[in-house]
Amino acid sequence: MKNLVIVGASGEIGLDIAKRFYNKGYNVFAGYCSNPKPLENLIMKLNQKANRFCYEQINLKDEQSIKNFFNKAKAVFGNISCLINCAGVSHPNLLIDAKTEDVDDELLVNLRGAILATKHALPLMQDKNARIINIASIWGTNGGSCESTYSASKGGLLSFTKAIAKEMGRTGLTANCISPGLIKTKMNKHLSKEDYVSIASESALGHIATKQDISACALFLASNQAKSITGQNITIDAGWTI
What is the pLDDT of residues 88-147, one digit of tens each? Predict the structure, then answer.
């Protein structure tokens, strides 16, 4: 049986990824920042058997917390088959009005946190078909107005993914990014219904991508069918940015 470790599992996208992998037979070790309730509710719905789904708090701004998290993952499931870095924070604002603490928050969680999580996961990734999947953003490639530091953090994550794909490729490990476009989540709660309608009308497919689209792509990248795909970024935005 394969073991998934997912960081940032309590958000809408992370929850759907964790649920999809669990239903496909993975053991799941899920990391959350401050609120375990969404994971508790998911576990109740899954009616899991044999403790295949566990969760633990992790502070991505603190390397000791990250180290402790992966030590616990090792104690519970042993090796890691797939690591998914899904944590993300955003503080939309004009750069001239940005608070330094908000800039630090985005860079520490979105980029540095993913790097350190990968650092501490790699010693546990002994499977020659191990997978790293980083959830980035279309703003990492396109840049988003009023999302300058968020864009920088996700752009850095894209570059990091390519670098680690080269660094670890001879072991058989693959590393890839998924870059969602607009997804209806709490992170985008500042957008109105009219905003969603407008963006859908601008998209090639005429709709908004969903969290299920993201989790389905993650499961494919974790599969043996994707064994020759590495260092890539897959954009899922219903053709909004093409």
Answer: 999 999 999 999 999 999 999 999 999 999 999 999 998 889 999 999 999 999 999 999
Q: What angle do CA 86, 16, 88 make, to 5 degrees?
A: 20
Residue 22: name the closest of 226, 227, 215 by CA. 215
Neighbours of 178 (CB within 10 A): 25
Domains of the chain: 3-236 (3.40.50.720)
Q: Say if strands 82-85 and 131-135 run parallel, antiparallel, or are unpaired.
A: parallel
Are 86 and 9 within 8 A, CB to CB? yes
* pTM of the model as a whole: 0.95
CB atoms within 10 A of CB 5: 27
Three-state secondary structure readout of the chain = CCEEEEECCCCHHHHHHHHHHHHCCCEEEEEECCCCHHHHHHHHHHCCCCCCEEEEECCCCCHHHHHHHHHHHHHHHCCCCEEEECCCCCCCCCHHHCCHHHHHHHHHHHHHHHHHHHHHHHHHCCCCCCEEEEECCCHHHHCCCCCHHHHHHHHHHHHHHHHHHHHHHHHCCEEEEEEECCCCCHHHCCCCHHHHHHHHHHCCCCCCCCHHHHHHHHHHHHCHHHCCCCCCEEEECCCCCC
